[in-house]
Amino acid sequence: MTRPRKRGLLSWSSGKDSAWTLHVLRERAAAAADGHVEGQAADAIDLCGLLTTVNATHDRVAMHAVRRTLLAEQARAVGLPLWEVPIPSPCTNEQYEAAMAEVMTRASREGVQVMAFGDLFLEDIRAYREEKLAGTGVAPVFPLWRLPTDALAETMLQAGLEAWITAVDPEQVPAELCGRRWDRELIAELPAGADPCGENGEFHTFVVDGPMFRERLDVRPGEVVEREGFVYADLLPASGAPAGQSPTV
Q1: Cα 99–236–165 angle (5° rounding)?
Q2: What percentage of the chain exceeds 70 in pLDDT?
Q3: How far is CA 33 from the centre of its chain?
Q4: Residue 206 gets which letter from DSSP?
Q5: Domain 6-237 has CATH 3.90.105.10
Q6: Where are the beta strands (DSSP E) in the chain?
Q7: CA gap 194, 165 in Å, rounded
Q8: Does the model's pTM come out above 0.90?
Q9: What three-state secondary structure class fits 145?
């Protein structure tokens, strides 16, 4: 006898860790549907959407600086609707938390029971999420928590996950990595101590293909700029797009 699935949202940054979380959750749901409910598969989740924070001023994914149009294409390719959370730029912590509280009210109203995150090992980030969701009726889950990131990176790559580096902290890794594919060659070039998944904020990514995608997104790197201590690469559809606004958070 299988347990009822929980209705859930996935915190979606547009990057590889949230994309891999989607894959893991779908694998668990499939296992539960087949009657294999041992362990984590027993807590299968029916995802109803991807929750993404969007910089309303620049029409881009916050921190990753990906164009909102590409975000929409990504959601279409993985087959889930977007729950966009618009925030201003600059954005205070109070403004961010107010925007998140509003969407959590909607989530509770629509029967969402869990929110999945792609966090890997940062205890303070996990504690913050748990604190903010406490009392909302929406429980946080962390499917990738404490997986060794070197092995996780290799697992992603072996499965065919393809991602591009869209933002870099040049104080942690070379700025020249921005706009490149996240692959084994790039990982080998990371400085000693840098996390291969960028969990310490070394870099951020945009996923264009993988086992969670129904079709590959074809993109090309555009302008690379430095703003407020970070380096950003604009991604464009490979078929061509107007230069438009330079990438920013």
Answers
A1: 70
A2: 91
A3: 26
A4: E
A5: no
A6: 6-11, 45-55, 60-61, 82-87, 114-116, 139-141, 162-168, 181-182, 203-209, 219-227, 230-237
A7: 15
A8: yes
A9: coil
Distance between CA atoms of 95 and 35, rounded to whole angstroms? 44
Q: Alpha carbon 136 to chain centroid distance?
A: 22
Rounded Cα gap, residues 228 and 96, in angstroms:
19
> 60 near 232, Cβ under 8 Å?
no
Residues in CB range of 39: below 8 A, 6 or more apart: none
pLDDT digits 0-9 by tens, 134-149 = 999 999 999 999 999 9
How many whole angstroms from its chain centre is CA 64? 9
Mean pLDDT of 199-227: 97
Q: Which two tokens stand for residue 51?
A: 């929750």
What residue segments make up the domains of the chain, in order of their start?
A: 6-237
